[in-house]
Amino acid sequence: MDRTGVFKSSGIAIGIMVGLLLCVILFKFMNKDRKIVTKYDERQIIARGKAYMYGFWAMTIAATAVMLLDMAGIVIASSLTKYFFILFVGIIAQITYSIWHDAYFGINNNKKRFAIICIAAAICNLLGAVGPIVGGEFIKDGMISDSGTNLLCFILMVTVGVELFIKSRKENAEEAPDESGDDE
């Protein structure tokens, strides 16, 4: 491996470590009781188990698709972006199932703090993708560069936000009393 590859790999490793440390701090901020661990009730735990199962199968399907493309010699993205895509598909499946089965937010989560964290993450990842797109570095040698991971993270945050918004609107509509005056 040449010097550039070593520096890039080291940068990614350090970025992951800093990201994990930041996640611990943000989890403490996100939870009402300032604990790192989110608490769930028994029904949520069961639903989250199913969500993780669906996430696993979605990742398996995505990994198979990426593997088949690789075997066919079709390269559409850098290795980092391809591997992140596999994780992305599983995460989206897990989150979507959790949201629609009331198992996404824990008992001790503060939804407003969570929204702030998601908006900040979305903006950071959007900026990480826009720079290479504008600079003409997003697609290199006919394939999506490593900055594709930033675009996928942005899409993830927007998807979560849209799903939570739709779910909230749906719940508010169901909770609204029947204003027609018809009591049956």
Describe the structure in your own words.
The protein has 184 residues and is an all-alpha fold. It has one domain. Helices cover 72% and strands 2% of the residues. The chain contains five helices and two strands; from the N terminus they run ααααββα. It has helices at residues 3-30, 42-71, 79-100, 111-134, 148-175; strands at residues 139-140, 143-144. Strands 1-2 form a two-stranded antiparallel ribbon. β1 (139-140) and β2 (143-144) form a beta hairpin. α4 packs antiparallel against α5.
Question: In summary, what is this structure?
Answer:
The protein is an all-alpha fold and 184 residues long.
Gyration radius, in Å: 20 Å
Helical residues, percent: over 70%
Work out the count of structural domains: 1
Please give the count of helices: 5
Strand content: under 5%
Spatial sequence of strands, sheet with the most strands: 1-2
How would a textbook summarize the main sheet?
A: 2 strands, antiparallel
Shape: globular
> Which secondary-structure class do the elements indicate?
mainly alpha
Number of beta strands = 2
Low-confidence stretches: none
CA(first)-CA(last) distance: 75 Å
Report the average pLDDT across residues: 87
